[in-house]
Amino acid sequence: MSIGPVEYLIVGFPGNQFNGEIVPALTDLVDSGTVRIVDLLFITKDADGNVDAFEYEDHPELEPFGDLAQALDGLLNDEDIELAAEVLEPNSSAAFIVWEDLWARDFAEAVRGSGGVVIAGERIPHEIVVDALARLDND
Question: What is the count of structural domains for the chain?
Answer without folding.
Answer: 1
